[in-house]
Amino acid sequence: MSENKNKILVALDGSEKAFKTIKYLCSFKPFHKKELVLHNIITKVPECYYDLKKEPFSYKATSRVKAWELGYKAEIEKFMEKSKMMLIASGFKPEAIRITIAQRNKGIARDIMDEAQKGYDALLIRRRGGMQSLLPLAMGSVSTKLVEKTVCLPVMLAGIQKVNHSLCLAVDGSKGAKRAIEFVGKTIENSDCRIVLCSVLRDYEGYDERKKEVAVGGIGTAFEEIEAVIEETRKQFESVGIKREKIENKIIQGAKSRASAIIEAAGEENCDTIVFGRKGRSDVAHFDIGRVPWKVIHGARKMTVWIIP
Fold first, then answer.
1. Distance in angstroms (rounded) separating the CA atoms of residues 87 and 32
2. Domain count, the chain
3. Which of 54, 106, 205, 275 could form a disulfide linkage to 306, CB 3.0–4.6 angstroms apart?
4. CA-CA distance, 10 to 2, in Å (whole number)?
């Protein structure tokens, strides 16, 4: 496999939910030109546990634990091979898929983050693993840590909504949004993907704090600025092979919550994926977008979410 950062690290735990991640990879056609590393981390029983073998009364217990450990590893290997066959059947090249099964070292989240720093284009995970399927949570502890701490590359949270190759991209003119645009363009170039460029403006963004009044023309100026950003973004996508008729824009005014407005817009436009920059300061209004990702992740549970650093 090449070392050109044109590959995705896919974290899998061997659960039925993890198969949905594989199905997502199979369905999203632009990924078929990528290289994949299917990565699993096994938590083995501590070696000190086997020291109990020295005690006659514990021999049966340690034997059962060893048998479980070997059986678990065999199940993971079977799962990974089945996943690879599914991916190949969907159109991936066999040589573009590699399987790695590693022993837990620092902790599952930290071990995945360490692996992610070895020249990947993105990290693909699920919101929750199989062991947390009965918990009423939007995010599991491992995925939460990965979203919070993996700042070196894009993090993709695979959803369960049917893939229709329609992406809702949050556009605000910030550096973070520009990096998101570049990443999406690189990922979907020369494809039939549909892009909805979504920008959210608040009515009070024209408020002048010093004069305690609404600045005349504030919203109008902001609207013109974001239209210019959207048009430039449209040209960028056209330059990478996306047809102009596949690029739409949606400017929302008067929203109380940017995250809610983006989620609602994505639903109205039948998008299966929401994309935004991790952080940024908009040319339209100064705000920390760091809170928006969490709101979108929790509010759009069925959709796939891409977070671009």
1. 9
2. 2
3. 275
4. 17
Encoded amino acid at 256, one letter: K
Instruction: Determine the pLDDT at residue 174.
Output: 86
pLDDT, tens digit, 9 for 90 and up, residues 221-269: 778 889 999 999 999 999 999 999 999 999 998 888 889 999 999 999 9
Q: What angle do CA 230, 233, 236 make, to 5 degrees?
A: 155
Q: Hey, which residues does 10 pair with through a beta bridge?
A: 38, 124
Tokens linked to 273: 């994926």
pLDDT at 98 over 70: yes
The answer, yes or no, to whether residue 287 has pLDDT greater than 80, is: no
Which of 158, 182, 204 terminates a domain? The answer is 158
3-state DSSP percent of the chain in helix, strand and coil, to 5: 50, 20, 30
Residue in 15, 37, 285, 308 with CA at minimum distance from that of residue 177: 308
User: Is residue 2 assigned to a domain?
Assistant: no
Q: Is 29 part of a structural domain of the chain?
A: yes
* Spatial separation of the C-alpha atoms in residues 88 and 12, rounded to whole Å: 17
Q: In angstroms, what is the C-alpha Rg of the chain? A: 23
Is pLDDT above 60 for 4?
no
Going by the DSSP 8-state scheme, the letter that residue 296 receives in this structure is: H
How many whole angstroms separate alpha carbon 170 and alpha carbon 162?
21
* Three-state DSSP class for residue 87: helix
Average model confidence (pLDDT) for the chain? 84
- DSSP SS3 for 41: strand
Query: Do residues 268 and 144 both lie within one domain?
Result: no
At 246, which CATH number?
A: 3.40.50.620
Domain holding 144, by residue range, is: 7-158
pTM, two decimal places: 0.84
Q: What is the pLDDT of residues 197-219, one digit of tens each?
A: 999 986 554 444 444 444 445 55
